[in-house]
User: What shape does this take?
Amino acid sequence: MTVPYYAPLADKIGFSEETVKSGRFKDTGHPLRHLSPDERSLLQGMVDEVLGQFVDAVARGRGMPPARVRSLADGRVYAGTQALAVGLVDKLGGLDLATRLAWEDAHQPGEPRVERVRERRLPRLLQLLGSFLGESPLSSGGLLFLYRGPVPQ
Assistant: This one.
């Protein structure tokens, strides 16, 4: 988990704000101040809980011991061949193969249709502003895939 800290930048441009909140942790992660020890502990607990849920789901789904999954879930990104070698995936392929296999697993007739729709990319300054204001990223500029097949029964 990353918590942005923009106070030095805000000081340089003369930006400040006051916070009115309804609970002790309501402004946890505010980008204009450091985390308190209690806030850091709260967020670390959440991260640990999410990791535990992830490890349990992967262990069940892959039929692997949780300790093995935990040893693999150290934050790294695995290349496809690496993921295959350690048992995190069954086979290598792209979107077309994954779509076809999911379609077959769902016992759907015919061929699936996938439309590739390009998102409009927002200027980097607007993306940064959204991040500065604590909003989620406004646009990745990537591809959005829309499933356009029949609704499974």
